[in-house]
Every structure is written in C-alpha cells, then in structure tokens.
C-alpha cells in the first residue's frame, strides 16, 4: 500500500472516480467511454501540472517515500548476475551498505550503494540506510578490489546521513568517511555516482567522489537535512519546509551549479510509479559514460576528476 502525499490527494480522488465509472460501466453494461475519456484527459493534465511545479520540500517528501526504489531494486534490474560481497575485514558487515560485482551489458563492474528498508523491520536491519564506519570500510575494500581488476565503479546514494551513534563514533566514523573521500579521489578506474533518493551530508559524500555524478529527477542532495538546518538556524526542526525551500537541494539546482552532470528523468509521480523506466534510463547513462571514461589514460582520468572536484563551490 503506497503512502500518498498531501499534494497528491486531488489526483488520487480523480483516479478513484475513473475506476468507479469503469466498474459501473462494466457491471451495468452502460457505455460511459466518453465520460471516462474526459476524466482521464483531465487526470493527465492535473498530473503534469502538479508534478511539474513541485516545491523543494515536496521533492524531499518524494525522495523519502518508503516505496521509492532502493539500491538493490535498481541493481537487480540493471545487473541481473549481481553477486553481493560482505564485510570490511576489520570489524563486521554493515547492512546499510550493499556492494558486489556483476556486469552491465558486457562490462564487468563493482557496484556499491546505501540500502534502506521497505518497512520498519527491514529498516531496523538496514539501520534506516545510515551506515556505520564498517560500511564505509566495506565500500572502500570493494573499490580497491575494483581498481586491482580494472573494473569501473558504480555507486548509488540514498541516505539521510552517516549514523552518529556512540559505537559508530568509537569505531572512527569521521576517519572512515574522510579516508573514503581521499581514496576515491585517487582510484585509477572510472567512478559513476547516481543519487537515487536522499543524498545527506558526509554520509553521502563517502560514496560520492567520482568522474560523473547524476541525480534522479526527484532526488535531493545537500550538506544537511532540512530538519537539521532548521534546528541550527531557527532552533526549530518543525521549520524544515522553510529550510528546504532555501537550501538549493534539488537536481535542477545542483545541475545549474555544476555539482552534478545530468538529471535522469522519472515518470510522473516518482520512480516508484515505473521502476523499469527509471532503471533503463540509469543503465543507458552508465553504458554511455563508461566507455568514454575507460578510453582515458589513468593520469588524465585523475586530472579531470581533480579539476571537477576543485570547481565545485567556485563563484564569480
């Protein structure tokens, strides 16, 4: 059962009306095709209007929907022969990060992503997509393995942020994130980053240094959550909507700032409405970019990545 958002209510009501008329027409053998077609046209117009003019806060709400596809959902669609690998070889296996190997088309790749749950039980297992240090160290182990075997790296970003519990801090959360930032900047294989939901703070950046960065249309990417910013600026997390509207966290904003390279289109209503459509767009983007990056000399690849990172945040 999907969780419908407040701004979707008129759409849901009209969809239900169409279904009622279709059912009535079938049960009573009455031709209501003209009336149904009029309502369907109105429904499509309403959808285009609503989803075209989404506010930043509405995009945050869509990015957080429990039914929104997760990393493993896309991996299953794009890499059917995916083999998951576990553990950081230092402490344990963090289920908030999933990683492994497989092929996209005929190209062997390493793929790593934040992993949220679909319900409360799975979210507890996945720690709501908030990794511990061992998760980031697992990711780095797999990245180093990818470099050894000359495999391109694909990462899926979808986290509210790194876990900030006592145990995570004791085991070096800040160090693990910082190490990933340094090491990802130096890896001598192509890295493609895809923000599929929430991109929250350093917890996202620890998988976010690469040669190409793209976002799904209704995903968000920011240095802090709207609730966190509202708490800092106004001492009130309830002002999160106000914060979101000034944070420039949408895919459109970040494309204009040059932080990302591409926006991947979503169906009306969000990626959960048609995961096959979105997965195909992601696959097309990966297959279009990997061959270009693999043709580059290793030093040229690193130089271009360095320049890309240095340009983020510059202004005139």
TrEMBL record:
Metabolic or biological pathway, per its Swiss-Prot or TrEMBL entry: Lipid metabolism; malonyl-CoA biosynthesis; malonyl-CoA from acetyl-CoA: step 1/1
Example GO biological process: fatty acid biosynthetic process
Locations listed in the record: Cytoplasm
Record's keyword annotation contains Nuclease: no
Main subcellular localisation: cytoplasm
Reaction(s) this enzyme catalyzes, per UniProt: N(6)-carboxybiotinyl-L-lysyl-[protein] + acetyl-CoA = N(6)-biotinyl-L-lysyl-[protein] + malonyl-CoA
Domain CoA carboxyltransferase C-terminal: 35-292
GO CC aspect terms: acetyl-CoA carboxylase complex
Keyword tags: ATP-binding, Cytoplasm, Fatty acid biosynthesis, Fatty acid metabolism, Lipid biosynthesis, Lipid metabolism, Nucleotide-binding, Transferase
Enzyme class: transferase
EC numbers on record: 2.1.3.15
GO molecular function, one term: carboxyl- or carbamoyltransferase activity
Family the entry assigns: Belongs to the AccA family.
Subunit structure: Acetyl-CoA carboxylase is a heterohexamer composed of biotin carboxyl carrier protein (AccB), biotin carboxylase (AccC) and two subunits each of ACCase subunit alpha (AccA) and ACCase subunit beta (AccD).
Function field: Component of the acetyl coenzyme A carboxylase (ACC) complex. First, biotin carboxylase catalyzes the carboxylation of biotin on its carrier protein (BCCP) and then the CO(2) group is transferred by the carboxyltransferase to acetyl-CoA to form malonyl-CoA.
Protein name: Acetyl-coenzyme A carboxylase carboxyl transferase subunit alpha
């Amino acid at each position: 059962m999907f969780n419908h958002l407040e701004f979707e209510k008129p759409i849901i009501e009209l969809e239900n009306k169409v279904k009622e008329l279709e059912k009535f027409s079938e049960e009573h053998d009455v031709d209501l095709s003209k009336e149904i077609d009029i309502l369907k046209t109105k429904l499509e117009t309403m959808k285009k209007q609503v989803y075209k003019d989404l506010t930043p806060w509405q995009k945050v709400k869509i990015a957080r929907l429990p039914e929104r596809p997760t990393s493993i959902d896309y991996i299953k669609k794009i890499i059917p022969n995916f083999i998951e690998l576990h553990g950081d070889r230092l402490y344990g296996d963090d289920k908030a990060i999933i990683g492994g190997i497989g092929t996209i088309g005929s190209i062997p790749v390493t793929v790593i992503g934040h992993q949220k749950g679909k319900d409360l039980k799975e979210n507890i297992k996945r720690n709501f997509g908030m990794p511990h240090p061992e998760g980031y160290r697992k990711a780095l182990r797999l990245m180093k393995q990818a470099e050894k075997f000359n495999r391109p790296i694909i990462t899926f970003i979808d986290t509210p942020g790194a876990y900030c519990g006592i145990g995570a801090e004791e085991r070096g959360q800040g160090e693990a994130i910082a190490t990933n930032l340094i090491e990802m900047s130096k890896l001598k294989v192509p890295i493609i980053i895809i923000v599929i939901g929430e991109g929250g703070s350093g917890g996202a950046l620890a998988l976010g240094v690469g040669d190409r960065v793209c976002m799904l249309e209704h995903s968000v990417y920011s240095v802090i959550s709207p609730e966190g910013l509202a708490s800092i600026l106004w001492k009130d997390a309830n002002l999160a909507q106000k914060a979101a509207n000034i944070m420039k966290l949408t895919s459109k904003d970040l494309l204009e700032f040059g932080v990302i390279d591409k926006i991947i289109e979503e169906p009306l209503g969000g990626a959960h409405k048609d995961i096959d459509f979105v997965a195909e767009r992601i696959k097309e983007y990966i297959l279009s970019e990997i061959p270009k990056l693999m043709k580059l000399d290793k030093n040229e690849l690193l130089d271009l990545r360095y320049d890309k990172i240095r340009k983020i945040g510059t202004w005139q």
